[in-house]
Amino acid sequence: MSVDIDIDRIDSVADWDRLVERSGQATPFHRYGALCAQATHTDATCHCLVGYKGQEPVGLFPVFELQRGPITGAFSPPPYLWIHTLGPATIEPNGLNTRTAERRRRAFIEDCLDWIDRETSPKLRRVTTDPRYEDVRPFAWRGFDATPGYSLAPRAPLHGLVVLRSLGEFFGLAGMRLGFAFERPVSRASRGSCPSVRLRGRRRVRRRHRHRRGRA
Fold it and tell me: pTM of the predicted model, to two decimals?
């Protein structure tokens, strides 16, 4: 199921700052006055992009167009400043389920990137998001080098979801049996009893191999 998002450029201070206040991911550097100061200090053009699903705002994405000679770049935040993060900030209403929110975010980012490519034709694109913007998959799907990658760990508070991590497998330490789990805080009574599991099969297989090699 596709989500239709309309991208518009806002030049109204009041309208933009009102959307910034509605987003839980926006920072003080997203405010209109701060964006104008960043554009002035870097000699760039700021495009204040907003995505709408019908009349409902989905997110905002400030992008700076910077030209040096024949090369045009699109940045968020702009370079040469001590501002480490900016990028998009979504506006999600209460009660929105996870799958619908992911579809809205993906359509919003893809349409914003299409607008940037169409209007600025940049040779270089760089976006550094705020840590509260967790889902970087839409950027990776469009060819960005997204670092760090997407993780389910921030979604551990969801009911019924347990995220497992194995240190031994991740770092290639075959002899180490160490890991951890993320889950929603629950009481021991509500969790119930958990059956114990003994991992002995792998040890038995290794002993058999050693025994065979010894006979040979």
Answer: 0.70
pLDDT in tens, 150-193: 566 655 566 667 777 666 655 556 666 666 676 766 655 555 55
Distances (CA, A) of 198 to 83, 164, 194: 51, 18, 13
| 6-9 and 45-53 beta bridge pairing | antiparallel
DSSP codes, 84-144:
--B--EE---TT--HHHHHHHHHHHHHHHHHHHHHHH--SEEEE-B-TT----HHHHHTT-
Distance CA 6, CA 55 (A): 9
- Going by C-alpha positions, the residue among 122, 34, 45 that lies closest to residue 83 is 34
pLDDT of amino acid 203: 47
Comparing 51 with 5, the larger pLDDT belongs to 51
pLDDT at 32 over 90: yes
User: How deeply is 151 buried, as exposed, middle or buried, from its count of CB atoms within 10 A (0-12, 13-18, 19+)?
Assistant: middle
Where are the domains positioned within the chain? 6-150, 162-215
Question: Contact at 8 Å (CB) between 51 and 89?
Answer: no
CATH number at 6-150: 3.40.630.30
- Sign, CA torsion 30/28/139/75: positive
